[in-house]
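Meet today's protein:

…
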Amino acid sequence: MKGYLVLEDGTCFAGDGFGAARTTAGEVVFNTGMTGYQEVLTDPSYYGQIVTMTYPLIGNYGINVDDVESRAPWVRGFVVRELCERPSHWQAASTLSDYLAAAGIPGLAGIDTRALTRHLRSVGSLRGVIATIADDRPVGPATIAAWAAEAQGFTLRDHVSRVTAPEPYRLAGGGPRVVVIDYGVKRNILRCLAGYGCDITVLPSTATADEILSCDPAGILLSNGPGDPTDLGGAIATVRELLDCGRPLFGICLGHQILALAMDGRTYKLKYGHRGANHPVKDYRTGRVYITTQNHGYAVDEASLLAELAVTHRNLNDGTVEGLMHRQKPVYGVQYHPEAAPGPQESRYLFDAFIELMDSTGSSAKRPERA
C-alpha cells in the first residue's frame, strides 16, 4: 500500500502503508521510547492521536496477548521509520501490521521520522491526516490539500468517555480496599495495586462522590487518561468533594492534573508534550533523580497553585511540575507513570506511600459535607 501523512500546515510525508487501508485524522505526536510500542498502542491516553515512534525499527518482537494495557488499541494512526514484518519473539502472536489491520488503524512506514519529529518540536504538535491506499492510483496536490484541510478541521471531544470502563468491576484482594476512578486506566496500575494485595473496585469516570464513598474505600486512585483536563468539569467537581473525605487520594498523569484543578489550580497545553521512557524527574524531598515514563500533552501551572500545595517533583528537561502534595491532607499526585517503571522498580515508592497512607488513616471514609 501507499501511505501518506499530511499535517495541517500542508507538510506531506509519503511512504509505505501498513495496517488498515483507510484515512483518518488525529493529533500528531511523537514518542521517544526504544521499546514498548504495544503498550503505546493500547494506552488509552493516546486516544485521538497519530503516534510517531522516534526509534527507527518497530515491530521486531511482534504483538503478544500479555503486554496490552487496555481492552483495545486507541491510537488513530501509527508512524514508523522501518517496519519489521517478520518478528522474532517466543510470545509473538501476530505482526504489528496484522494487529493494526484487525483494529482498523492505519500505519505509515518508510518516512523520515527524525524530520517529522524535528518539525513537531519546532512548531508544536499539529493535527494531521494519515491515509493508506490499497491501490496504485496517483495522489495529486488537490488530494493533499484536501487532507490538510481535513486535518485543520479535526476536533475530538469527550476523550475520557470513549475509553473509561462502561461498568464498574472488581479485582478482589485481601488487602486495603481501593477505588480506582477510570479516566483511561492502564492495566499495569491495577497490577501494581494487586501486587500489594489491594481489593480493587474500578469505577467509570462519571462516578459521583457518593458512589465512590459507598464502596468504603481505604484509598482512592485517580487514573491516567486522554485529552484536555479542563474538559472534565464533572470529574473535577467530584474530586473537589472528595478532598475532605479523609481518605488518601493519589493521582497519576491526568488524575494528577484533575487534582490540581480541583484545588483551584490551572493547567496548560505543552508545545509538543512529554512522551517516552527517558524523562529525568527530580524528587525534591529526597534529592533523587528518576528516569521516568511519560505520556501527556498538558501540565500543571505552578504559579496557580495554592500555598497549601507543595511541588514535590520537577522535570529536569523543562522545569515543569511533575508532582504535588497537599501540606495537611493525604492528597498527592505525579505527572509521570510510576507503574511503567523504566528503572525498572525505582518509582514504586509512590505506591508504597499510597499503601502507607491508607494504613495510617484507617479504613472508613467519611462523606464530605455538602453546601
Q: What stands out?
A: DSSP finds ten helices and 19 strands in the chain. The two ends are 60 Å apart (CA to CA).
